[in-house]
Design brief:
The complex is a heterodimer of chains A (275) and B (332). Chain A has one domain: Orthogonal Bundle (MetI-like fold), CATH 1.10.3720. With 275 residues, chain A is an all-alpha fold. Helices cover 76% and strands 0% of the residues of chain A. Chain B is mainly α and 332 residues long. Chain B is 70% helix and 1% strand. In chain B, strands 1-2 form a two-stranded antiparallel ribbon. In chain B, α3 packs parallel to α7 and α12 packs antiparallel against α13. Chain B is globular, with a radius of gyration of 26 Å. The chains are: A mainly alpha (275), B mainly alpha (332). Chains A and B meet through α1, α4, α5, α6 and α8 of A and α1, α3, α4, α5 and α6 of B. Chain B: Its main location: membrane. Chain B: It is found in: Cell membrane. Chain B: It is a multi-pass membrane protein. Chain B: Belongs to the binding-protein-dependent transport system permease family.
C-alpha cells in the first residue's frame, strides 16, 4: 500500500470517528427511551433497543402534560419565526432599497443594539412582564423577540445584493406603493434569506430555556424545555420516561433541521466569514 | 464587521420616486419607510433598553420582588466583592471555558482540515457534525447526565470494564467541570469546524498545491499554512466561544440543579444570578451580579478587540511573510 492510500484511510477513519461521537448521544437517547428504568440502571448497560418506548411515552404524558407543552412550543416557535420574518424583512427592505431622513443614524443604532448582552436584564424583564400581566403567558415568549437586529442586518445584506433597483423602480412606475412593492418584489426575491431566518428563529425559540424558565411562573403553561426539566428533577427516578420526553422534544426539531440544513449550514458559515 | 451603509447610486433623475434621492420632500411622505422600521425600535425600547436602565437602578436596591424597593447605594456591589460564592462562580466559569474552548477549537480545526481534503459525502458529514449544535441543551444535558452518572453511567461502566477505577463525574469538583466542558465540546466542535471549513475554502488552492509540490506533509501544511491563514476566522470563533462560555447556564442547571452540585463546583455566573434572583428572590443582588458579568464580558471584549486590531494593521504584509516563510520552511 502506498503512503497516499494509508493517509486517505486515516483521514476517513478520523472523520467517521467524529461523526460517531456527534451522533452517539442521540442513539443512546433513543436506546434508553425504549428500555425500562431497571434496564437503564443495570450493569453492564444495554446498548440495544428494548420494547418499552410506548410505555415510556405513556408514562411521561401521565407525569407532565407533554402534549400540551408540545402544542405551546410549536405555537411559540412558529409565531416567533413568522413575526421575525415579517418585521425584519420589512425593515430590511426599507433600509436596503429606500432612502429616508435619518436612515444612517437608525441603521447604526440598530447595529449597536446587537452588542447588548442578553442575560443582563433577566430580572427587570421579568418584573416588566409581571407588571404587564404577561408572566406565565405565551406572549411573554413571543412579543419581545418579534423583531431583531440580527435578522434585519442579515436580510438587508441579502436585499442589497439580490434585488435590482430596476425592479423596485418599475414596481413604482406601475403605481405600487412601498408596502405593495415590498410584498410583490421584496418578499419573493428574499426567499432564500427568509428561509434561513425562519429556520434559525424557529430552532432558537424551540430550544430557548432561561427565559421560559423565569417567565413561565404558572406551572400549567410550559414549553417542552421547561416541562422536560421539571420531569427530570421531579420524576427523575423514572428514567425511561424522562428519556422518552427528551426524545419527543428533539424529534420535530431534528426533522426541521435536516429538511432545512442546506440553507442553514451555508448561511451560518457565510455569516461568520463576513462578520 | 462590514458596515457598508447603502447609498443609492448617484445620477438618478430626481423624482424617480422612492429609490431616488430627490429634492427635499416633506417628512410625512416617508411614513411607509418609518412604519416599516418602527417595530424593531419600539420593541427594543420597551423590552431591551428600558429593562437595562431599570436593572442599573435595581442593582442599587434591596428588593425581594414583592415588598418595598429599598435604596441601598453601593451595598450590593460591596457585598459582591467580598462574596466567596460569587468569586467561586467566576472561577468555575473561566475554568470550564478554558477546559472546553482549547480542545474544542483544536479538534474543530483538525476536523475542518480533514473535511477539506477531497472527501466524499462532504455535505452529509456537515449535517452530522452540525446536528449537536441545533439540539435542545435540556434534553442533551439529561442524556449526558446518564452517560456520566456516578453509579450506572456508560463512561464508568467502560472504565470498570477496562479495569480502571470509576470516576465520581457528577459529585467531585473536577469531575463536574470536565463533564460540563465535555457537553460544550460535544455541542460546539462541529459548529466551529463548519466555520473553519468555510474559511479553508476561501484560501486559494494554489498555496496548497505549491506546498504539496514542495513535498510538505499534512501536518506541516496544517501547522505552517492553514493555521496562520485562518487566523481571522479563528479569532471569530474565540470571540463567539468567549461570549457563549461566559453565559453558560443550561448545562449546569439541568445537570446539577440550582445550586451547582457538590461544593457548587458547577455554579457558573449566570446560574448564580438565576439562583440569587429567582430562587432566593434577591432581585437587587441578582441585578448587581448581572452588571458584574457585563464588566467581565467587557474586559474580554477589549482583549479580543486588541488582538483583532493588532492583526488587521499588518495582516496583508503578515500574510505575505507567512507564505514566504512557510515556503522556505517546506523546501528546506
Amino acid at each position: 500500500m502506498t503512503v497516499r492510500v494509508v493517509s486517505r484511510l486515516v483521514t476517513h477513519l478520523c472523520v467517521l470517528f467524529g461523526v460517531l461521537l456527534s451522533v452517539f448521544p442521540f442513539y443512546w437517547l433513543v436506546a434508553m427511551s425504549t428500555q425500562t428504568t431497571a434496564e437503564i440502571f443495570g450493569y453492564p448497560p444495554r446498548l440495544t433497543f428494548g420494547p418499552e418506548l410506548l410505555t415510556n411515552i405513556r408514562s411521561v404524558i401521565h407525569n407532565v402534560d407533554l402534549i400540551q407543552a408540545l402544542f405551546y412550543t410549536v405555537i411559540v416557535s412558529a409565531a416567533s419565526a413568522l413575526l421575525v420574518m415579517f418585521f425584519d424583512s420589512l425593515a430590511a427592505f426599507a433600509f436596503a432599497k429606500y432612502s429616508f431622513p435619518g436612515k444612517s443614524v437608525l441603521f447604526v443604532a440598530l447595529l449597536v443594539t446587537m452588542l447588548v448582552p442578553g442575560n443582563l436584564s433577566l430580572v427587570p424583564s421579568f418584573v416588566l412582564m409581571s407588571h404587564l400581566g404577561w408572566a406565565g403567558s405565551l406572549q411573554a415568549l413571543i412579543i419581545p423577540g418579534a423583531a431583531n437586529a440580527f435578522g434585519i442586518f442579515l436580510l438587508r445584506q441579502f436585499a442589497a445584493g439580490s434585488i435590482p433597483d430596476e425592479l423596485v423602480d418599475s414596481a413604482r412606475i406601475d403605481g405600487a406603493g412601498f408596502f405593495r412593492t415590498y410584498w410583490s418584489v421584496g418578499v419573493p426575491m428574499l426567499r432564500g434569506g427568509l428561509a434561513f431566518l425562519g429556520i434559525f428563529t424557529f430552532i432558537s425559540a424551540w430550544n430557548d430555556y432561561v427565559w421560559p424558565l423565569i417567565v413561565l411562573v404558572n406551572p400549567r403553561v410550559q414549553t417542552l424545555q421547561t416541562a422536560l426539566s421539571t420531569l427530570n428533577s421531579v420524576y427523575g427516578t423514572d428514567y425511561g420516561a424522562v428519556m422518552a420526553g427528551a426524545l419527543v422534544s428533539l424529534l420535530p426539531l431534528i426533522g426541521i433541521f435536516i429538511i432545512g440544513s442546506r440553507h442553514f449550514i451555508a448561511n451560518i458559515a457565510a455569516g461568520a466569514l463576513k462578520g | 464587521m462590514t458596515l457598508s451603509l447603502t447609498t443609492q447610486p448617484a445620477g438618478r433623475t430626481a423624482g424617480t420616486g422612492a429609490v431616488a434621492r430627490g429634492p427635499r420632500r416633506p417628512l410625512r411622505s416617508f411614513w411607509p419607510q418609518y412604519l416599516a422600521v418602527a417595530p424593531f425600535y419600539l420593541l427594543f425600547l420597551i423590552f431591551g433598553l428600558f429593562p437595562i436602565g431599570f436593572s442599573i437602578y435595581l442593582s442599587f436596591t434591596d428588593w425581594d420582588g414583592i415588598g418595598k424597593i429599598k435604596f441601598v447605594g453601593l451595598a450590593q456591589y460591596q457585598y459582591l466583592i467580598s462574596d466567596p460564592r460569587f468569586w467561586n462562580a467566576v472561577g468555575n466559569t473561566l475554568v470550564i471555558w478554558l477546559l472546553a474552548t482549547v480542545p474544542m477549537l483544536f479538534l474543530a480545526l483538525v476536523l475542518a482540515f480533514l473535511l477539506h481534503q477531497n472527501i466524499r459525502f462532504k455535505s452529509a458529514y456537515r449535517v452530522a457534525y452540525f446536528l449537536p449544535n441545533v439540539t435542545s441543551m435540556v434534553a442533551m444535558a439529561i442524556v449526558f447526565g446518564s452517560v456520566f452518572s456516578d453509579s450506572f453511567g456508560l463512561v464508568n461502566s467502560a472504565l470498570t470494564a477496562l479495569g480502571v477505577n470509576e470516576v465520581p463525574w457528577l459529585s467531585s469538583n473536577w469531575g463536574i467541570k470536565i463533564t460540563i466542558a465535555v457537553m460544550v465540546i460535544w455541542r460546539w466542535t462541529g459548529y466551529n469546524a463548519i466555520i473553519y471549513l468555510a474559511g479553508l475554502q476561501a484560501i486559494p488552492t494554489e498555496l496548497y498545491e505549491s506546498a504539496r509540490v514542495d513535498g510538505a506533509g499534512n501536518w506541516h501544511i496544517f501547522s505552517k499554512l492553514t493555521v496562520p491563514l485562518l487566523r481571522p476566522v479563528i479569532l471569530f470563533t474565540v470571540i463567539t466561544s468567549t461570549i457563549g462560555g461566559l453565559s453558560l447556564f443550561t448545562e449546569p442547571q439541568v445537570l446539577l440543579g440550582n445550586n451547582g452540585g457538590t461544593d457548587e463546583a458547577g455554579m457558573t455566573i449566570v446560574l448564580y444570578q438565576y439562583n440569587q434572583a429567582f430562587t432566593q428572590f434577591d432581585f437587587g443582588y441578582g441585578s448587581a451580579i448581572a452588571w458584574a458579568l457585563f464588566i467581565i464580558a467587557l474586559v474580554f471584549a477589549v482583549i479580543n478587540w486588541r488582538l483583532v486590531r493588532e492583526r488587521s494593521t499588518d495582516s496583508s504584509s503578515q500574510r505575505r511573510l507567512w507564505t514566504a516563510t512557510t515556503r522556505k520552511g517546506i523546501t528546506r
